Amino acid sequence: MIEPIEFFTGKFNISISNIESLLGVALSRGGDYADLYFEYATLNSLNLEEQIIKSANRAARLGVGVRVISGEKTGYAYCDEIDVAAIRKAALTAAHIAQSGSDAGPVKVSRSNPARDLYPVTQLIDDEPLPHKIELLNRIDRTSRAFDRRIREAQVSLADEFKLVLIATSEGSLVGDAQPLARMRVMCIADDDGNLQSGVSGGGGRVGMDFFSDRLLDHYANEAARQAIVQLEAQDAPAGSMEVVLGPGWPGVLLHEAVGHGLEADFNRKGMSAFSGLIGQKVASELCTVVDDGAIPNRRGSLNIDDEGNPTSQTVLIENGVLRGYLQDKLSSRLTGASLTGNGRRESYRRMPMPRMTNTYLLNGASAPDEIIRSVKRGLYAVQFGGGQVDITNGKFVFNATEAYLIEDGKVTAPVKGATLIGNGPDALTKVTAVANDLALDEGVGICGKDGQSVPVGVGLPTIKISEMTVGGTK
């Protein structure tokens, strides 16, 4: 794998003394803290529709972001090149925005490496010959269509990215990381005499080409096709208040949206979250322990270092129902005195970092999944989710269940369509009455948006039962 510090200093003729000088420029108007974020990324995408390659794209992203913090004030500027003169101009701009006094003096940095390598990829997807990648997409298309004669269309995409970052701070650190990322997505459309339904599958992570085995590709193809076929037989979802069981894995997206965003430190230091000021108080059922963990090997949301150069970690957010803390970035940590958690993230060098989730999930409980199903007289079993909307200030959410079933007298029965889950994140957690022992993380497809920035994330959940939730349906 490419060594980031050597890459940037060698390829772009940026010396350590240049970096120290540029940090000094950033602090020349009296800021408390400054950092430089160097980025070079290659991005590829390949899309198959109607059994032909509809698009193939390749792009590169290159630039440097300069941030200066002075109390609660932040100055930020960037340049779309890695050039000392251009970076100096950006540093002066950020310094003027955040100015608070006199020159802070010289800065010295010492280089270091991340303490671990969570994604030791040996064969980047970027290096794989294009004909082989095209054959992978064609294989998925053939397998999907063979699942059932009613599969009319398969849309398959492969997207990969390889990012090199170098982060220098006025606190003296200089650290880099090489970050691979890949995602396969499959959508199947089933047609039964004009009844059109779809199913979606896929996965990936911080992985190389060897991750996408024939067995895994067949799983993606068959799973997307299965979901589409199930929906052909689905009846309209009932409406009303009822018990809801969430399946393991991807349904953790509800936890991510309805609870996770409300536990990010910027919302809480501004008093904007439903969880603001509640550390040490009970906010969920005692069965609920929620963590965010950016240090799981090869996971989509994992990082050796966050986008401020700090090591990622496992952060316990809610422990046995009690709120223990928030996800911190550098700014929120400085302003509140809380310890860093390694959750400062940004979409690219063009954007400032902010507190963001990595891989967020609920820990295992003691129940068996089938016991939970048997305990429900009448309810909904939600297995897959699509889009949703959440209001951070009060935790209210609406989510679409793309695969769900009725539970009747303790048994999973008919599939339903058009089901939406309506509720309040903090309130829903207080109504968790059973947590199973089958924790699963999603297969590696998550993308999280916040303030116009998108970053890769992971979610997870064991099977859980919520004693009461409003289900929106059509009957």
Task: Please tally the β strands and state the result.
Answer: 25
Largest beta-sheet characterization: 7 strands, mixed
Poorly predicted parts: none
Taking all residues together, what is the mean pLDDT?
Answer: 95
SS-derived structural category: alpha+beta
Task: Tell me the number of helical segments per DSSP (H or I, 4 or more residues long).
Answer: 10
Helix-residue proportion: 10-25%
Q: Any overview of this molecule?
A:
There is one protein chain. The chain has 2 domains: 4-232, PmbA/TldD superfamily (PmbA/TldD fold, 2-Layer Sandwich), CATH 3.30.2290.10; 240-472, no CATH class. Helices cover 22% and strands 40% of the residues. The mean pLDDT is 95. 51% of the residues are buried. Helix 2 packs parallel to helix 3. The strands form 5 sheets. Strands 1, 2, 3, 4, 5, 6 and 7 form a 7-stranded mixed sheet that branches. The chain has a 6-stranded mixed sheet with strand order 12-11-10-15-24-21. The protein is globular and about 70 Å long. It has helices spanning 4-11, 16-26, 84-97, 130-147, 214-232, 252-260, 265-269, 330-336, 369-374, 425-430, and strands spanning 33-49, 52-70, 73-79, 110-112, 151-169, 173-192, 195-205, 235-236, 240-246, 290-293, 314-319, 322-323, 344-345, 354-355, 359-362, 378-390, 396-408, 411-417, 419-424, 432-435, 440-441, 447-450, 453-456, 458-461, 464-472. It is α+β, with helices and mostly antiparallel strands. The longest helix is centred in the middle third of the chain and has 19 residues, at 214-232.
